Amino acid sequence: MNQQLSIFTKLINGIRHPKSFAVLFTLVIIVSIVVVTRANRSQIDLAYVIGNGDRHDKLAYISQDDQLILYDPVERIENALLDNVSGFVLSRDGRVAFTKLDDNDLYVFDTTQPDNDPINISQTHDVFEYPLAWSPNGRYLAFGSFTESSGYPPNIWIYQGSYTSDSEGLSLYVWDGETNINAMPDQPLDRVDNARVDWSHNGQLAFTLEHSWSEDDVPAEIYLWDGHNTTNISQNPNGYDGGAQWSNDGKLLFGSHRGNEEGVFVWDGTSFANGVPDASTFIQIAPELQPTRVTWTEDSLVAFVVYTDTTIPAKTLIQWDTESQAIVKEMPVSSQNAWSWLAEGGQVILSSHLASGIPSVYLDVENTAGEIVFSEHVGEFAWSASGYLAFCGIEERYSRLLSIWNGEESWIVARTSYRPGQWQNGDKVFSCNNG
After folding, report:
1. In this predicted structure, what is the pLDDT of residue 24?
2. Model pLDDT, residue 379
3. Are the CB atoms for 191 and 238 separated by under 8 Å?
4. Distance between CA 163 and CA 351 in Å, rounded?
5. CA-to-CA distance for 364 and 370, rounded, in angstroms?
6. How far apart are CA 302 and CA 310, in angstroms?
7. 2-431 has which fold?
8. Torsion of CA 90, 94, 97, 98, to 10 degrees
9. HEC secondary structure over 359-414
10. How does strand 292-296 pair with strand 302-309?
11. Cystine design at 309: which of 59, 314, 343, 350 (Cβ 3.0–4.6 Å)?
């Protein structure tokens, strides 16, 4: 248990800040509010921020009327795509995998062919299924499937950017456009209660299987489905592994506790031994710097934050070359919020800190020159590489406002609570919960 929590903080929050892990862990699932907008005109490149050319992103969300809406933040118009939707993930090519409010099946709808009916991809009706993620090329859909227990469907909620459940006996499947393929390993360590997935750009699936707490405290393991077979990446049954992320050029980043070594590692994605990833080729990322909130950049460098002071969050964001094992660039972080990381697209640094009262965080957005350009008290939020911030605001204690900031101004998109949202070109699902 302690191994899992320690590695989790390295990848998600940060291990050197004096706050307890209970606070760190709570922050990740935090959802709530926005009170006042204090948006200054951004010094971020506005060509990047406002639409980013051909990377123009759109926001999908479920309305209070259970309609799936696709919202264009440039034109500020919305289109209703589907009715009776409970959960969804949207692909970059416009296909939606979704579940309905009144049955347990999984459906796919192509928004580029709106006259066609959704197709039911469930092959059996005695299980409950929910979507996880589309591959970047739209060829594959990863989804979870498990048998209902005690005659009741499981609870599904959004946690750390994806759907999860409270039931055991989960199996992971991949739909290839025609059939459902079982991607589970032949011998998982224990019954599975959650799967976290990440697709590579060439259609390989890295997934972490998490097990229900037991007396043996079975740690999570990372696996690879290559389109045909499933192999164990971790090969580490006695230590926790998780947080798998692919780079644009096919390397895999993950957190691991391996023997006496605890940190963040990179597998090159190509080295195998005896049919499984060659663990001897795993490279540990800058252990002497104790990196936190480690992410890939678009040019396949690694970005992470180091704390230079353990009492006051004095931080530096570092870009690191995994091949030369050297610092490429250092950027000071101005925000005094506890946790900071480089956002997708590499143009802004996000920093958050747990707020008191209704579950929420203080959020700062700053450019890479160290200037804070947006500060807000928010619930869940999601950054688009096109340069938009979607966040959950609050009007009254139990009323949530889905809002967008585009680098110059923020505005309300819809009033919605307990409904998921997702940027079309991103993978993170978020929810405007009411705390």
Report:
1. 27
2. 86
3. no
4. 24
5. 11
6. 23
7. Methylamine Dehydrogenase; Chain H (2.130.10)
8. 80
9. CCEEEEEEECCCCEEEEEEECCEEECCCCCEEEEEEEECCEEEEEEECCCCEEEEE
10. antiparallel
11. 314
Residue corresponding to tokens 């579940």: 99
In whole angstroms, how far apart are CA 293 and each of 99, 155, 169, 264, 281?
32, 29, 30, 10, 23
Task: Give the pTM.
Answer: 0.85
How is residue 141 written in tokens? 């859909």
C-alpha pair distances (Å), 327 with each of 21, 298, 370, 433: 28, 16, 18, 39
**How far apart are alpha carbons 170 and 137 in whole angstroms?**
26
Task: Return the percent helix, strand and coil in the chain, to nearest 5.
Answer: 5, 45, 45
pLDDT at 166 (0 to 100): 60
Supply the angle between the helices 21-28 and 2-12 in degrees, to the nearest 10: 60
d(Cα 89, Cα 421) in Å, to the nearest integer? 9
Q: Are 32 and 392 in contact (CB under 8 A)?
A: yes
Rounded to whole angstroms, the Cα distance separating 328 from 70 reads 39
| In the predicted structure, residue 34 carries a pLDDT above the cut 70 | no
Closest CA relative to residue 97, chosen from 202, 223, 197 = 197
Q: How far apart are CA 306 and CA 292, in angstroms?
A: 6
What are the tokens at 72? 């264009």
d(CA 257, CA 38): 42
Cα(123)–Cα(128) distance, rounded to whole angstroms?
11
Here the tokens at position 83 are: 């009715």
Q: Is the dihedral of CA 136, 267, 235, 229 positive or negative?
A: positive
Token output for 309 = 């002071």
Tell me which residue has tokens 């946690």.
Answer: 159
Let me know how long the chain is. 435
Give the Cα separation of 403 and 409 in Å (integer): 11
**178-210, pLDDT tens digit by residue?**
999 999 998 887 788 889 999 999 999 999 998
Decide which of 365 and 124 is more confident: 365
- Tokens found for residue 361: 């965080």
Q: What gap in Å lies between CA 395 and CA 412, rounded to an integer?
A: 11
Tokens for 220, please give them: 């999570």
Tens digits of residue pLDDT in 46-62: 333 333 434 589 999 99
**In this structure, what is the dihedral angle of CA atoms 362, 368, 369, 374, given to the nearest 10 degrees?**
-30
Task: With H, G, I as helix, E, B as strand and everything else as coil, classify residue 423.
Answer: strand
